[in-house]
Amino acid sequence: MANAQTGSGGVRVKVQRFGSFLSGMVMPNIGAFIAWGIITALFIPTGWWPNEKLAELVGPTITYLLPLLIGFTGGKLIHDVRGGVVGVLATMGVIVGTDIPMFLGAMIMGPLGGYVIKQFDRLIEGKVKAGFEMLVNNFSVGIIGGLLMIGGFEVFGPIMSGLDKVMAAGVDWIVGAKLLPIASLFIEPAKILFLNNAINHGILSPLGVDQVADAGKSVLFLLEANPGPGLGLLLAYMVFAKGAAKRTAPGAAIIHFLGGIHEIYFPYVLMKPILILAMIAGGATGVFTFVLFDVGLVAPASPGSIFAILAMASRGSYVGLIAGILLSAAVTFAVASVILKSSAAEEVSLEEATQNVSAMKGKQSYASALVHDRLDKVDHIIFACDAGMGSSAMGASVLRNKVNKANLPIKVTNTSISQLPKDAQFIITHEDLTDRAEAQVPDAIHRSVTNFLNADYYDQLIEEIKAERSKIS
Fold first, then answer.
1. CB-CB contact of 103 with 138 (8 Å)
2. CA atoms of 406 and 295, how far apart (whole Å)
3. What is the tens place of the pLDDT at every residue in 64-77?
4. How does DSSP classify residue 314?
5. How many whole angstroms separate alpha carbon 207 and alpha carbon 222?
6. Which of 3, 91, 369, 430 is the least crowded, having the fewest Cβ atoms under 10 Å away?
7. What whole-number distance in Å separates Cα of residue 338 and Cα of residue 31?
């Protein structure tokens, strides 16, 4: 059993890591996607304020700027700025070699360029004579980047164009056949495994942008970002749960629905995994309603807040959008209520759920463990999540306030797991992401939580640190 669990956990971690890498190419550039979406919504002929001159910005932005940003970011993730430069050169070849927005090509050629220049740098490390470093560095980027640009134009461009058209045609067929609600069978469970950013920004957003270029809107931006199912789940907890889950659900609902931090409701599903049925039912209801009303967004809604969704809505989509969100929340609430009421006698608190997770893993949970070594030397605590923007920022804010009130000289920040510094001292992650954080920085102190708003745990941590510091004072 232990081996099976280890194997399963290893696969999960690998899938999360790959998904995080995909989303890591898009997430830093979401602001650029939003800027393009706003310009598109305002100035195209069917926009709010048609403007033929300003509408000229739409085409070059989607054809060149956005794919090049993704290509640079992908290369930079592999080999810093040198990787980014080669990645953007390789991406340019794919762009010119096709006649469609090349997001898929950018997500392949960008990292490929970074990988090739990284291997070259490893090959010549320590072999370049003094005084020739700059010459070798510049010409290696130019030659390798140029070759990859030609390869992208002649070889990868046509291949990527074909793959993109096949994927787009598949999505169009699913939408036309009214089968899109079935996607919730895969999207909702994957979100709970912290693959939400990978799904939304690594898969759906690039395909959605292609649809916007053709139709001026895309329903694909709503498949993962819809806050309705999460709201319905948390409302059910507010009414039918008890203990810490019931007390924390109202605050979580506000953060989720208004702030767009979907990760906040994941622990509530993990406490009672059968609730995934409620999430699937609500998600499918929302998608069915969106398709029925023929609504969509003009750009990704990030974060998945009701405000961001309404801001990115295409003209004439508001009624269908609101109906889809409310109906998905209502269906999730109804199904979750039945599940919670039928198991009321077995209801567990968030704290008990942490202990149960520890037992299932066959080891003590970091959230309940007390690891005292090196705590007296900690002066920087880092919260890490998949994207480094949502749940980690929320947890860091809660702990930062408590650290300041305790007058402890400790810095509290947040980042993505992929960007964790190698010299990090103390890292806090959600328990489903701790394996990845440990692999990234094995020498740090790692703590896991099931809920980033668990104020009681942070109080305990503060007292633990103060106690360790008092021993040496």
1. no
2. 50
3. 998 899 999 999 98
4. P
5. 12
6. 3
7. 40
**Tokens coding 438:** 């440990």
pLDDT score, position 468: 77
Residues 287 and 222 sit within 8 Å (Cβ to Cβ)? yes
The DSSP H or E segment spanning 453 is none
DSSP state of 296: -
Provide the 10 A C-beta neighbour count for residue 49. Answer: 9
Catalytic residue numbers, as ranges: 385
Nearest Cα to Cα of residue 290 among 314, 311, 254 = 314
Q: What are phi and psi of 336, to 5 degrees?
A: -65, -35
Which residue in 332, 322, 303, 326 sits closest to 237, CA to CA? Answer: 332
> Exposed (0-12), middle (13-18) or buried (19+): which is 323, by Cβ within 10 Å?
middle
Inter-residue contact 152 to 118 (CB < 8 Å)? no
Please give the Cα distance from 241 to 245 (Å, whole number): 7
Q: Which pair of tokens denotes residue 126?
A: 């320590």
| Count, residues in the chain | 473
Which range is least confidently modeled, 230-244, 258-272, 415-429? 258-272
How many distinct helices (H) and strands (E) make up the chain? 21, 4
Q: How large is the C-alpha radius of gyration of the chain?
A: 24
Confidence of residue 29 (pLDDT cuts 50, 70, 90): confident
| Residue 134 CB partners (closer than 8 Å, separation 6+) | none
Contact 94, 152 (CB under 8 A): yes
Please state whether the predicted TM-score (pTM) of the whole model is above 0.85.
no
The amino acid at 99:
D
What is the crossing angle of helices 2-26 and 66-96, to 10°?
A: 80
The b-or-e profile of 94-126 (16+ CB within 10 A means b, else e) is bbebbebbbbbbbbbbbbbbbbbbbebbeeeee
- Contact between 249 and 241 (Cβ < 8 Å): yes
Q: 449 in helix, strand or coil?
A: strand
Whether residue 174 is predicted with pLDDT greater than 90 in this model: the reply is: no
